[in-house]
Design the sequence.
């Protein structure tokens, strides 16, 4: 009974768009996440003083969820546009058939869209949970790492830029490659993959992702280490990292979402 009701609600949400573009289900989830961020902001200063690690874990989890929701929405919009083009081609007598598209881009849960209308793919709650879990579990390691960098390379009134650059160098040469390796390993194992799947993921996307990392994060971390107090460094990184995590989400799921 409950399962049938759940599927009915998801199908209803999945069939509706905001202004004909943004899938309602994705938008609802995004608004819930933003409400959680609003509550977190209100209580952040007091919470981080009492329980700094737990607070950063919750912050990372919520922002990681926002990033994946953004990525899933982008995939949904891309698929909707692609299906619309194919539908128009069919009307014009083109040879591409909708069932061929469905074979190339299967929906994760076909019973949510049984008549193969051009709906967005159902929201992947398991994928969202994986991203939030990764952010939650990585926060203690990030917290200890940033504390280590602060103690080893202290920034004073007379020495600011050089210690900040040293922190960035250590962070990008040591933590960034390891953190990225943790990400792809965790995600692949959480998806049910084994050793071979992990190795394939590394062969396909690790180096391109690491190169992309070096285009963004050195500049971000200079600002972070030079200007941000220690308690705000992880939230700052996580906030900027929404776009980065969305990129990783798209990269990690590129095989499944390819159109």
Sequence:
């Amino acid at each position: 009974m409950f399962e049938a009701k759940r599927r009915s609600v998801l199908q209803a949400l999945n069939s509706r768009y905001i202004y004909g573009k943004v899938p309602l289900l994705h938008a609802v989830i995004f608004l819930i996440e933003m409400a959680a961020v609003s509550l977190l902001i209100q209580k952040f200063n007091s919470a981080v003083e009492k329980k700094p690690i737990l607070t950063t874990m919750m912050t990372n989890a919520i922002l990681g969820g926002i990033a994946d929701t953004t990525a899933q929405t982008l995939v949904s919009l891309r698929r909707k546009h692609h299906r619309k083009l194919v539908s128009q081609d069919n009307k014009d007598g083109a040879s591409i058939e909708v069932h061929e598209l469905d074979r190339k881009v299967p929906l994760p849960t076909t019973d949510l869209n049984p008549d193969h209308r051009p709906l967005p793919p159902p929201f992947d709650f398991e994928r969202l949970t994986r991203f939030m879990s990764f952010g939650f579990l990585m926060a203690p390691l990030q917290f200890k790492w940033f504390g280590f960098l602060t103690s080893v390379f202290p920034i004073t009134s007379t020495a600011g830029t050089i210690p900040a650059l040293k922190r960035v160098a250590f962070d990008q040469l040591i933590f960034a490659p390891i953190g990225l390796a943790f990400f792809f390993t965790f995600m692949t194992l959480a998806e049910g993959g084994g050793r071979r799947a992990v190795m394939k993921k590394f062969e396909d996307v690790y180096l391109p992702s690491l190169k992309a990392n070096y285009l963004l994060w050195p500049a971000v971390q200079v600002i972070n280490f030079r200007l941000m107090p220690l308690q705000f460094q992880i939230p700052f990184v996580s906030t900027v990292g929404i776009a980065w995590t969305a990129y990783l989400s798209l990269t990690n799921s590129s095989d499944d979402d390819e159109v």
Observations:
- The longest strand covers residues 17-18.
